[in-house]
Amino acid sequence: MTTVEKPSVVFTMRYPDDTGYVWNFTAAVRDRASCDLRERANVYMAFPKLTGNPSYQPRNLHPVELDCYDNSPAGRAAIEQFVRTHNVKVMVFMSALSNTVCLDLLRRLGVRTINTENDSFDPRQRDNAIKKVAKHIVRRLLRMQQHDLHLANSVAQEEFLLNYQKLPRDKVILMRNSVDAVKFHPGDRTSARAQLGLDQDRFWLLTVSQARPEKRVDRLLRVVRDVVDARPDRRIGFIYVGDGPPAAGWKRLASELGLDDHCVFAGRQNDLVPYYRAADLLVHAAERESFGNAIVEAMACGIPVVASAALGPKETILDGHTGAVIGLDDFAAFTQAVLRYVDDPEMTKMHGNNARAHVDTAYNVVRQSKEFAAHVARFL
């Protein structure tokens, strides 16, 4: 009797295993999903580099060094060898356009592919008539340029994939992101501020993001300046957690605005919990955001949020109940929303409590992990 080797699933990662930051949670969700898959399949997480100093220690899958986003001849050869050696049946990508990975090779090898759609996008994008028709023919009729399944992290992302990208309805499924509400939960603010060396008597505004232009931290700094000027009797502080090329320019802008004594640029932090617990209010001004992990993590920690009305925040924040959603380019209204929280500690506390309850109901990581595993299991 011939023994058939157990099939394998590969969750792909874009960065080395020591990168940390938001990618730790990405890895954790895949690890949780693997718990429901490991009886049926061997499960791997492929990193372009194993450093020996991983920022996340998986429990249910095996880390391997394999760059699944390398479409060069050498990269394709390595992927093919791994697929053949380990009987890979499913490969899960992250925000990977079908023409940027070796989809042709994987199809030839019989591997089914899933793409988790997490990238921010501009909902104002419009195609001309010719491009719309071309997308419809290629993707809806010929069913090319697509994975076997696209998992949208929000309703807005789902609509974008269907209406702009013209992916077939049966290839797109909504799987909302989540947050680990056991890790991210309210804690003692005084202790958190002491741990981070922050002044206890300030009203602390916090923003957490990768440093990219669309995050508009420069606009937030101008909001901070306006808040400081509007409330000279209050001590206002601003914390930015994140890094990337624009961060140096944002630091210079803070100095130009006379905010050096008000701002903390904390850089990249793997442990965000003390920052959320130390803050009074999260502010988020991104003009493109498909979900916004930091928003939901902050709410899980009992912190209300003021955010620009990108599509993700419009879904995750209950306006007037867990925070405030402000017109995308209305920074005068953004400033006024922040001032309402500065002036009303009871509302700040109530909206923070509401935020935690909302996360418990809507963004449960156990729910997402089980949904994820079920979608992968379809192809085993």
Quick structural gist:
By secondary structure, the chain is α/β, with parallel strands linked by helices.
Description:
It is a single chain. With 380 residues, this protein is an alpha/beta fold. It folds into two domains: 8-178 and 365-377, 3-Layer(aba) Sandwich (Rossmann fold), CATH 3.40.50; 189-362, 3-Layer(aba) Sandwich (Rossmann fold). The protein is built from 14 helices and 13 strands. The protein has helices at residues 22-35, 73-86, 103-108, 129-141, 155-163, 189-196, 217-230, 246-256, 273-278, 293-300, 311-316, 331-343, 345-362, 365-377; strands at 8-12, 42-47, 62-65, 88-94, 112-117, 149-152, 172-174, 203-208, 236-241, 263-267, 281-284, 305-308, 323-326. It has a seven-stranded parallel beta sheet. Strands 10-9-8-11-12-13 form a six-stranded parallel beta sheet, sandwiched between helices. Helix 10 packs across helix 13 (345-362). The protein is globular and about 70 Å long. The mean pLDDT is 92.
Keywords, please?
single chain; 380 residues; alpha/beta; Rossmann fold; 2 domains; 7-stranded parallel beta sheet; 6-stranded parallel beta sheet
